[in-house]
Amino acid sequence: MVAIDPNDLDALDRAFPALCGCKHFDVLDYPDLLYNCIAYAMGTDQMWVAPYRDAPWVWWPDTCPFNDSPDSLIQAFKALGFEECTSVDNEDGYDKAILYQDGGFWKHASRVTGTEECESKLGESWKVQHDRGEVFEGSIYGTIYAVMKRPIADAHITMDNVPQRVPATVDRVKWSRIVEAVRDFNRNKYGKNTAIYCGLDNSKIYAVQINV
């Protein structure tokens, strides 16, 4: 659990009206630009998982459609050993992910972690704990449309396939702040549609500017 500034908590409450007041809500970790909700639900905090092309900080299964249709996200989970199921309940021996959609596009995924709890990475923002169910209704994440499960014994499939972007020796909070500083500098200099990928090469930081 981490401390969160009241202003940041208010911003979360405005963005996700049903989230902050739910029974099991808690803030688990600081904002981290290095991974997103899909990556976390798949079992990694090493990459941003999304169907973008030619973006080196982003990974997506080559066998899946490069779009944000709800089915494309289901196929992405299947590529990592998940299968569809019907219950959001915790199930012994399985990892589970809940997928959300809005307006005909996938928007979010959360990880089932307990008998009543889930965990979510909120985009570039905080990692939080929350109730299972429709805690994102009324927000940009929308409503549940699918549940995926995979045997815990197969969790290695994610690590076997998703590139490992952050060396274990790196302080993730400091690293994320470096990424944010470089990105913001370049966006201010080159425009809001500029995304920045930062990496390490022989312990030296490098950045790649990509117009998106």
Please sum up the structure shown.
This protein is α+β, with helices and mostly antiparallel strands. It contains 5 helices and 11 strands; from the N terminus they run αβαββαββββββααββ. The protein has 2 domains: 6-161, endopeptidase fold (from Nostoc punctiforme) (Alpha-Beta Complex); 172-211.
Provide keyphrases for this structure.
alpha+beta, 2 domains, 5 helices, endopeptidase fold (from Nostoc punctiforme), two-stranded parallel ribbon, 212 residues, 7-stranded antiparallel β-sheet, disordered C terminus
What does this structure look like?
The protein has 212 residues and is α+β, with helices and mostly antiparallel strands. It has 2 domains: 6-161, endopeptidase fold (from Nostoc punctiforme); 172-211. Helix content is 24%, strand content 30%. It contains 5 helices and 11 strands, in the order αβαββαββββββααββ. The chain has helices spanning 6-15, 37-42, 70-78, 156-161, 172-190; strands at residues 26-29, 48-49, 58-59, 83-85, 94-102, 105-112, 117-121, 127-131, 143-151, 194-201, 204-211. Mean pLDDT is 83; it is low at 194-212.
